Amino acid sequence: MPVRSKSFPFVAIVGQDALKKALVLSVVDPSLGGVLALGDRGTGKTTAVRALAAVLPDIQVVPGCPYNSDPSALDELSKECAPTPAQKKAKPIKVPVPVVDLPLGATEDRVLGSLDIEKALIDGEKSFEPGLLAKANRGYLYIDEINLLEDHLVDVLLDVAASGWNIVEREGLSLRHPAKFVLVGSGNPEEGELRPQLLDRFGLSVDVETPRDIAQRVEVIKRREAFEADPAAFNKKWQRQTSKLRTKILAAKERLASIAPDDDILALIAQICIALGTDGLRGELTLIKAARAEAAFAGDAKIHPHHVRAVAPMALGHRLRRDPLDDARAVVRVEKVLEDIFVTRSVA
Amino acid sequence: MAQQQALSQDLEAALWGDACLAAQVFAHFIHSGAYGKATLRLKGYAGPVRDLWLAYLKSLLPPETHTHQVPVNITAERLLGGLDLGLTLAAGKAVEMRGVLTEAHQNLLFLPMAHLAEATTVSLIAAAMDSGNVRLERDGMSKLEDACFAFLCFDEAGDDDEPVSSVLADRIMLHVDLRAVSLRTARQPMQPAKTGKVDVSISDDMRSQLCALAASFGLLSMRPAFQLIQLAKAICALSNDDEFTEQHVAAAVRLCLVHRAKQMPPPPPEEAENQENPPPPEPDTEDPPPNPSQDTQLPDDMECDSTEALLPPNLLAYLEAVSQRQSMRAPTGRRGAKTLGRQRGRPLTSRKGVLSAGKRLDLIATLRAAAPFQKSRQSARGNTAQVKVRKSDIHIRRYQERTETSTIFIVDASGSTALNRLGEAKGAVEILLAESYARRDYVSLICFRGRDAQVLLPPTRALVRAKRSLASLPGGGGTPLASGMRAALALAQEERGRGRDPALIFMTDGSANVGLDGAGGRKQAAEDATSMAKKIGGAGLPALIIDIARQPKPQAKQLAGLMAATYLPMPFANAQMLSKAVQAAQ
Questions:
Q1: What are the residues facing B136 on neighbouring strands?
Q2: Under 8 Å CB-to-CB from B23, ≥6 apart: which residues?
Q3: What is the domain-level CATH number for residue A305?
Q4: Contact indicator for B498, B343 with CB cutoff of 8 Å
């Protein structure tokens, strides 16, 4: 595995345990529905997301395919985007999992894809120029400052992320292409609040804070300095831990399918959701999946109550109804309810 | 008096000295190729002092440095780049236009009026500062371009303006304040520029101390700590010293931390008493006061309490005075909302559509859509005179249609509202706040007590901030009802100017005993209240008066009549009833 020296190694990030856990779980089970990182400036949200790319194992793709198509599952492509016979015959190549940035100021045509103007002019041919959603297929789409993005664009992205398909009906084009990606968003609630509907669409949500402990803060700076002085050497230093994490993630992905929640766990999860008054089933389903991913990552064969407890704050915290008279942060409220439930359980 | 004069002169000299040092550091980074580290914010107004400083800075920069200015109303397109409309039309094929951010690569990006820059502009610049490049995904183009630039901005925010975006402030290393510097001070000869060594190493111990210093100023983001270390190194390198001295650290703290501090490190106890009467000036302000250990290394226990020793005398007092004026105008969260285009009449990006009645054509976007096809369309018809626009090119302007309401609560917090009534009122306001929040309305809070009214909470959507300001709502004192009404009227008119629909909710018993001028006297107070009520009525503002007296008296009802407001007696605060009434009032 070559060292990808451009980005700061994921395993070298100081603190930020909740964010790192949420990102790892989203790798173990991409169907969890994305990660939202909320927090102040300068907390290293962006660093963590970009660092994730280097941890992910490579994927096999059809060479030259703009959708990063999987050579073993070509049937799902529509006619317009199917690879050419030559591409099909070519030997599949291994590429890093795409982590695509949605930069601020990106226009709709580049995000969703649009008519290829050059081809239309020169060959008179109506052809589709894939956008960022195509690039992100089978990978990650990262949106920094998601609260600054236009509402309608966010809605489209969430729709595509949920369905896994980008359906194009514009400029005389009519096609659909796979766009299975994990949406990772970050934002600072002080600079414009996120709509509750948007919050609910993310599977996991974490509050990111800068470390308050001086020793930790110094460590952050030392590692950053070392990285900037020599990125390659720094990455090499952390390579063993990176591969260890990668192996663990791969094992967890394999184990995932064999883990099913038993009735006791389902009852516990329902009890937590009812106690917190989270609306809808989305919270419950996400908590089941997250607990399963957590169990798989821990190397366990079944879901234990402590797995549920570990992931409940990030799976439910953003789904609580806001209580204006309660000053506590959502995560604190979740913790309180969990505490009550687990104390009762241990007594019984 | 003479003493104060002398004091301010010392402070001026110190501030000017810092400004010149900042310019030297800024230039040092550019000379060494570390463009991204050269980031500077200058607080100060247009005038000869600022011009002198700018001329000094320019004299230090390499002559080939170009300044790329960002106008305050720049579009995302001009910043990032995109399709060049004119050239594309002429050439008949897509021609790219470079953006200011990439043009400024290895040069200087200059943002005057940084405090007025819109959230999108600030975010785009910040993204380029973070990554050193621009990722362009616009108008069918997709590319990554270098954009590593030095950044200079002028911050002219006055007391009544919103402060410069914290997104920018967080990313800027050097902060300079010229507002208190007179021309006489600025005319004094400047130190010649020095060329520094390339690198200075830093001990672990020193790194920890600098890190703790950044935190002690309430700057919890990691960026200021990182900047402080780099700045201290640069200052040390510029002075050609091998070891860090207190002077280096002191200068770094002044340039990097003090002017954006969220809190001041607690002063040592004996000096706290002297704050009213500042000590006489020391002859040399640039030198920190003598320290028991005059080693090149700082003492190990250098903690928050000795931070003041690093600063010129009076700087803290000066900053306190400045920041108190500014904290009255905390950021209201409007920046984010502005970009989202939620305000009435705010344009959104235009989209393709059919031109029909009531819709407005976006000419530029339409031409842009038509541009790449000009050659093919013209060759088809053989007519090259005009621009060929087809129906499918047409882009329609879109506006956010929803009107936002801005609910202004005016709460009587005087002694006549007994303390428990105030508690009830707070509870009711909190519930109303939560509902307004759910409807995505803006909420603001004015309270009146004692001699005057105060805007406790400027219009905001941030519920957390609202709750915080409500919790600190004090009670007691006289009842300056008219002042409360005046403040409400002013705020309502401001809100109208922003395209929102204001609604006023008064919680009072209608009795007043302090007039507009702050003087006591029931008669004058009642007259003032009556005339203000008429003004509010004349302005046609929807209003609701909630009479919170235990035994409702006629005053409040009369005022409601004058204001054309709904009157609601509520001897016992009932949140549900309140909420319904408020919704009806809007």
A1: B143
A2: B40, B53, B56, B57, B60
A3: 1.10.8.80
A4: yes
Q: What is the pLDDT of residues B10-53, one digit of tens each?
A: 788 888 989 999 999 999 999 988 999 999 999 988 889 999 99
Whether the model clears a pTM of 0.80, i.e. scores above it, the answer is no
In a domain? residue A252: no
Q: Which residues pair with A168 in a beta bridge?
A: A175
Question: Are residues B88 and B232 both part of a single domain?
Answer: no
**Residues of B numbered 421-460 whose beta carbons fall under 8 angstroms of chain A's beta carbons: which are they?**
427, 430-431, 433-434, 437-438, 440
Of A147, A189, A221, the CB nearest to B211: A221
> Would the pLDDT of B281 be above 50?
no
A96 and A188, same domain (yes or no): yes
Question: How far apart are alpha carbons A94 and A82 in whole angstroms?
Answer: 19
| B453-474 residue pLDDT tens | 888 878 877 666 677 777 777 7
Strand ranges for B226-362 from DSSP E: 347-352
* Nearest alpha-carbon partner for A225 in A55, A14, A2, A1: A14
Q: How many domains does chain B have?
A: 4
Comparing CA positions, the residue from B104, B42, B54, B52 lying closest to residue B79 is B104
- Give B454 to chain A, closest Cα distance, Å: 23
Q: Are residues B371 and B413 in the same domain?
A: no
Chain A contact for B335 (CB, 8 A cutoff):
yes
B108 and B220 assigned to the same domain: no
How many A×B Cβ pairs under 8 Å?
157
**Nearest residue to A292 via CA among A262, A260, A269:** A260
The Cα A217–Cα B207 span in angstroms is 10
| Cα–Cα dist B215/B474, whole Å | 30
- Asked whether residue A155 falls in the same domain as residue A47, the answer is yes
CATH number at residue A190: 3.40.50.300
Cα of A339 vs its chain's centroid, Å: 28
> Per the structure block, which two tokens stand in for A77?
């492509």
Overall domain count for chain A: 2
Better pLDDT: B352 or A139: A139
- State whether B532 and B431 are in the same domain: yes
Residue A257 domain flag? no
Q: What is the ipTM of this complex?
A: 0.80
Scanning every residue of chain B, which has its alpha carbon at the shortest distance from the alpha carbon of A324?
A: B434
* Chain B touched by A114 (CB under 8 Å): yes
Q: Which residue of A has its CA nearest to B169?
A: A41
- Give the domain extent around B236: 196-276+297-327
pLDDT at A87: 76
- Within a domain: residue B386? yes
